[in-house]
Amino acid sequence: MSKLFKLKEYLTIEEAAKHLSTSIDEPVSLADLYRLVLDQHLTMSVRLNSHAYARGGQYITPQNSDLNSFQVDYNLATNAALEDPYFLCLDDELQVGENRWLAFDKKVHVIDGVWDLAMIGIESYEIDKLYQKEVGGPEPTLDAINNLFLKRDDFIFRIQTSLQLEGNQYNLTALEARLDNLLRANGLSIMDLKHSNNSLALDPLSPAELDEFMALNGALIPYESGEYVESDNYLDLGDVNYQFVIKTGELARFIQSLEDQPTQSKASETNATNSILCLLAAVLAEHKYDWNQRGISTSFAAMTDKQSTPLSDDTIRKILKQIDPAVESRIK
User: Fold this and answer.
1) Region 309-327: what's the mean pLDDT?
2) Which of 132, 105, 141, 110 is nearest to 38 (CA)?
3) Which residue from 97, 102, 92, 96 is spatially nearest to 68, judged by alpha carbons?
4) What is the DSSP letter of 91?
5) Taken in order 284, 287, 289, 290, is the CA torsion positive or negative?
6) In whole angstroms, what separates CA 18 from the centre of its chain?
């Protein structure tokens, strides 16, 4: 491994294929790389070339599957506790399995940098299309959700294709960032406009950019009461500008996994563990326990104490975090 490799956060797809070929001493093509990603052996990421706008969320499992609502007492994008819990309608969220949903907070976040692909939306289709192109196969059918989903830690972010032109608590930061980016791209700033009484200050903007400026500026002007104009109008954000990459840490993990190839007995042990986790998921779901609920590990720790088989909160949390991957592996 080169010294420069250790300093890099990510490699391009071409660089990653070359690095893998050198590391495992066998040729790795782009097609091989894409196939590894599609088969979920390797996590691909994107480097956002400009700001993107996204709503953050996470997977939820309602305790009562007969109800069509879910009480939210923590921020779905950060896990921070909420002072005022609320109910969300499951019909408005994305169902991804039996009594399992992907729910999103209402706030639109401004994001940049490097993010992992969640592989549950159009990103899966895009990788499959690249794979088919490399192997000369037919273009895949777009049967995935027509949205780009990115992942960081336990949170999923759904890229927005439009912004509501209303300066409310959910959109204000995103609208301000969009306006700032528009002006900066033309060598301007909000302060330039505030200190200028010359209408020619906006001359660098194209007609389309001027229309966008007027729409954003109008949405960001509050009434004297501090409230903003209510609006059902939306600003089209266009396509997200990004580049497919693979993190160097992920490449190192994958190479190590090949060197530590499990024996048949270890593979059987993994299958047995997954079976136990799937059984545990079924029992918990039957008794209306949400293993992703904040603080649930404390309740389970108390149960183990009563059985004279105490387990720590940390141990239980580690076990519970393995349930979803185990269930997903069986579903697929």
Assistant:
1) 85
2) 132
3) 92
4) G
5) positive
6) 28
